[in-house]
Amino acid sequence: MTKAMINTVTITKSDIPNGGMKSYKQDDDSIILITRDDDEFHAFDGKCPHAGANLGDGLRCGHRVVCPWHHASFDSRDGSLLEPIATEGLTQYELINDGDNVTVDTSATINKPIENDKLTDTHTIIVGGGGAGFMTAHQLRQGGYGGKITMISKDDKAPYNRPLLSKAFLAGNMDEDKLLLGGSDWASSNDIDLHLNQTVSEVLPNEATIVIENENGDSTRQTADFLVVATGASPTIPPIKGADVDGVYTLRSMADAKLIKAASHDQRVVIIGTGFIGMETASALAQAGTTASITVIGQGSRVMGNIVSETVSNALIKLHEEKGINFVFDATVNEITKIERQVDKDGDSNNQAFSNVGGVTLANGEHIDADIVVLGTGVSPRTEILHEVNDPDGVQVDAHLQLRDGIYALGDIAKPTNQMGRMRIEHWRVALQHGMVTAAAILNDDNVDSLEARIPFFWTMQYGKSLRYSGHAATPDHNILFGTPDTLDYIEYYFDDEGADTRASAASTLGRDKELVAFSELLRRGHAPTRAQLNAGFDMIDQAHALSR
Length: 549
Prior knowledge:
The structure is a single chain. The chain is α+β, with helices and mostly antiparallel strands. It is about 20% helix and about 35% strand. The strands form 10 sheets. A 7-stranded antiparallel beta sheet has the order 1-2-11-10-5-4-3, with no helix packed on it. Helix 1 (about 130-140) runs parallel beside helix 7 and helix 2 packs parallel to helix 5. The chain is globular, with a radius of gyration of 25 Å.
């Protein structure tokens, strides 16, 4: 039971099981989360700082409180951040132990002052202003780093949440300023020397040095005690004739999203690619409701075919078709055609010719009219400035993202070792994990897990429905499906083969978030269920609780 009295809430102890947690919604829409271990009680703001999910709807596994939406994890004893997507820990409240009750005072927070007194005479340079670079800088300051931090970015914006470009911004559901990581004054408030619109032309790992080139081709060098390279990835442009015509776009940056948003009004849009970027772009533009038509072209017969099974893919196709999306499958685009337009500039006789998209021609000869084309055809890691270790499939680093002593490569360019092997993964949560691990390595903080104790996670948002995926599977074709994807209520487990004793290596879901959280915790702990166990009715949530006791 609860009793609200201005800023205090009284809670009966017996309401909360030992080793468990419970959330209490308040009249002002706030949420209080209480955790219990024997007679130890702790109180926190119960909304996940990432997107506001009720943490009480998540799962507590040992001392980990896991968000049901995007699997951010917090320490149940002090609220500290253990796992992104969130970038901050939980606000902790003071409470009074009073016999059979505890009283929480939400006006009295337990402050955790940060003394930035570590490595004060050192300099860290971060190349790249994406999620990995941001999280490195942010966690360095949160961990007490007192040295100089310089961040250099090619972008003209301070670090922002790139996944929300296709999930929310393009649909008109989120303003630009809401995408900024850490808020509009993050760099100044954290004493980050942020340099935008600057190009690093070369990284010399053996010298801990970067070369910065200006617009005139002049270069300067900077050397650091710690060098973090997080240059991200570039959109892959397929070898399609006409891919350089005006009206062909990729979606990677805020500038890209703004161009697509402006250019798509009352236009016939063709999206090439059926991965999650292509599907999110289709969803966002459909939700914006400003296009004349949207057609998605895929080389295969499925959407997100390397991630989910054919059954789940068909359910996603149905969802999109119900929103007016047209699909062309098993198709290869041979050419993006163009039309020539004459423009009379300033009313004089010197007309100028411009080429614009006219449509796309497929290998079978079919022509699809289009005014703009969006390429959702994958990305390639930006490793070209790391000449000494250039690898087209990523930079091989250890489980702490270290390439050399004091030199780190992370985010989309990194191919580190984790508990699932050595792999390069282009997901936002992974980039934030890399930042946490790198900052801890620089600070020599052994209390922060390395990548070997973490697993990948991503989610895609389409028409307000969130498909979430945890782990990593080479193919979705060795699978067990529970539920009905057509009603957007399923969970699907993926395996490396058809063996009865093979353990699941990944899972995806729509609508069964708590079960996915439980699976993720079992996978992280090395106890993912086998095919035989799942077929026999394995209770994922009970097992996750049992393992954590």
